[in-house]
Amino acid sequence: MVRAGGEVAARRVIHGDSGLPLPPAELAARVGVPAGVDPLQFYLDEGRRLRTVIEGLLPDGWRWTDKRVLDFGCGAGRVLRHFATEAAHTQFAGCDIDAPSIDWASAHLSPPFRFLHNNLIPPLALGAESLDLIWAMSVFTHISDTWAEWLVELHRVLAPGGVLVASFLGEGIWDALIGSAYREDEVGMAVSHKWDGPAAWVFHSEWWLREHWGRGFDVQRVLRPPRASGGQPQITHSYIALRKRDVELTADVLKQIDPREHRELAGLQTSLELAYRDLDQVAGDRGQPAPRGVSVAGLRSVRRRLRGKR
C-alpha cells in the first residue's frame, strides 16, 4: 500500500486521508473485506461511501450544526472518521459490542468523537430523547433475536422527530448469499447462519420493514440497489431512512403479525426453508444430531404442513 517516495506518503497511510489514525488491520477487517482487497483501504473507501449514502437519505434541508448523532455499531470508527470537520459543531458518538474496537477508537479518535461500549442487549448508556440522528450500518443485518428490543431502545433515545438510517440485506444480497431468486412478497425477515451469532445473515424485505418498523417510525426514504442493464440488482445493501413517531413502542408491538397480511405466511415459510437448509448444512444430513436438540424430522414435518402436503 505504501510506495517508495517519502515520509508524506507513509504518514498518509498511517493516518488516512482525514489525518486521523488508522486502526490495526484486524479491526478494520472486522466488518468484512472483499477478497484480495487491502483492509485499510477498504475501511477508508467504504466509510467514505457510507457517509455519502447517509447524507443522501437525510431530510431535505438537514444541517449538521448543533445536532446529536450516534453511529450504532461504529466498529473502529469507519464512518465516523469522515465527519471530523462537522464534529467541530456537532456531537458525534459511536457504540459497538466489540470492546477492542471501542478501546482503540477511544484512544485514537476521541476527541473529536465519543465512544461507548454496549452489550448484546439494551439499554444504551444514553438518556431518553438525547439524539437527533442514529445510523446503523451493517447492524440489523446481523441481529436475529433482539432486533425489536434494540429498535425500541433506539426509539427511546431519539428526540421527537429524530431520524434513524439503517442498512438492510434485501434484493441486492439475497441471490449472492442464498443462491436463489429474490421474491419480495415471499421474504419478510429471514435469518440464515444463525449459529454464527452476531455474524448471522438477517434479511428484510421493504414491505416487512414498513409493516413492522413502521409501527414506531414513519418511513421517509428507501434506497434500493442500482440495477444493471439486464435488470439485476447490484450486489450491495439496501438502505432505509425513518423518522420517529410519537407512539408508545414495545417489542411485542413490533413483532406482532397481522393475520390479514398474506405475505407474512409466505415470509415465515421462506424463513423455515432457510432454517431447514441451515440444519442440513450443520448436520450434513449424515445422521448427525441437529444442533440444540432440534429434530430434523420434526422440521421436515412442519415444512410439509406449511406447503399443504400430507
Protein model, in words:
The chain is an alpha/beta fold. It has a domain at 41-256: Rossmann fold (3-Layer(aba) Sandwich), CATH 3.40.50.150. 34% of the residues lie in helices and 17% in strands. It has helices spanning 7-15, 25-28, 39-57, 99-108, 147-157, 171-178, 206-212, 251-255, 262-283, 296-306; strands at residues 68-72, 91-96, 114-117, 131-136, 158-168, 189-192, 201-204, 217-223, 238-244. Helix 5 links the parallel strand 4 and strand 5. Helix 9 (262-283) runs antiparallel to helix 10 (296-306). The radius of gyration is 21 Å and the shape is globular. It starts with 6 loop residues before the first helix and ends with a helix. 32% of the residues are buried. Residues 1-14 and 290-310 have low confidence and may be disordered.
